[in-house]
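Hey, quick one: can you model this chain's 3D structure?
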Amino acid sequence: MQLLLTNDDGIDAPGLAALEEVASKYGSPVVVAPQEEHSGASHRVTDRQAIGVKTLSDTRHAVGGTPVDCARLGLLHLARETTWVLSGINAGGNLGIDIYMSGTVAAAREAALLGLPAIAISQFRRSWLEPLNLERMKQWTGRVLDELFQRPLERGEIWNVNFPDPEDPNHDPEIVFCPVGSGHFGLSCKETNEGFVYRGRYFDRHREPGDDVDVCFSGNIAVSKISHG
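Sure thing. Here's the predicted structure for all 229 residues.
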């Protein structure tokens, strides 16, 4: 099984390295990831200039473009024999309406539009001051891939996975299949000398019982099927 790996945090992101390590147990991973961070890039593509690609090794390519550019270049040129596309592991949740802004999810979406099954994986964080628990992320990624590789997807469908950030380091989360939440999270704008900046508390966002926001915030692994067919 050939796996195409990408993300929106950039090719040097620790979450991508963790994903690459786990993916190597299932097949042959090829990394095609942005040279720089493109968080929040959504489905933006580079169409008014050439896209530079720096080949770091036979299986690692740094792209001067967006996550969607990476998915396209990987599937159309750099890793044509791909059977699954994995995007992540994102540093931060991609829950509810985040899926419309996320470059992580957009890369998986582009793979689905090109006819490949794909999984977007993100790690919700209660605090950005705390480092990512990479060992835990790798363990949970293995559990999720064991499950999802056995579940067929129709053309145009992807899995969106969000890991919780429990306060108890020994917490053993369940994998819960759930719908994507539709509620917005509270936002405000603050004017500064440089202009306006957004303000908001991610953890205080609206959630409905059983949606992906609720499942993840309750300490379980939220898995949602998203269709783009």
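One thing worth noting: The chain has one domain: 2-227.
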